[in-house]
Design brief:
Blueprint (H helix, E strand, L loop, with lengths): L1 H24 L9 H23 L6 H14 L2 H13 L3 H29 L1
Helix pairs in contact: 1-2, 1-3, 2-3, 2-5, 4-5
Length: 125
């Protein structure tokens, strides 16, 4: 039961953060580069590297934090399904170059961010 509550709490915080970023910090504009989704996906990729290092590799925090932070918080914060539909919409609007650039930049950015999160945290911790 506590695991479910941890997922729910983390998910609520992640969802609120996602909403705040896409509504107030980087508002979504149809037909333009989806900066909010890109930002939360790269941020989430970095943070999963950080949390994985601290919780799984270094065992500095209890395994319960993995459920709260990695499953709940990052699961709600990051937006692969939104990324997918935004890419498809750009493509369907005839913006093939922007759709392709968005897909490649997002994937590369997320891979690099995860590697940076793992590497930097392993060095600092």
């Amino acid at each position: 039961m506590l695991q479910w509550m941890a997922v729910a709490l983390g998910g609520a915080v992640g969802a609120m953060m996602r909403f705040g970023i896409s509504t107030y910090m980087l508002p979504v504009v149809p037909g333009k580069f989806p900066w909010a989704t890109f930002f939360v996906n790269v941020l989430g990729s970095f943070l999963i590297g950080v949390f994985y290092t601290i919780i799984v590799e270094k065992s500095l925090w209890s395994p319960q934090w993995k459920i709260l932070l990695m499953t709940g918080f990052l699961g709600a914060l990051t937006t692969f399904s939104t990324f997918s539909i935004e890419t498809v919409h750009l493509y369907l609007r005839g913006q093939m170059l922007l759709a392709s650039a968005y897909a490649v930049i997002t994937m590369a950015g997320c891979f690099i961010a995860s590697a940076c999160g793992l590497t930097l945290t392993a060095r600092w911790v």
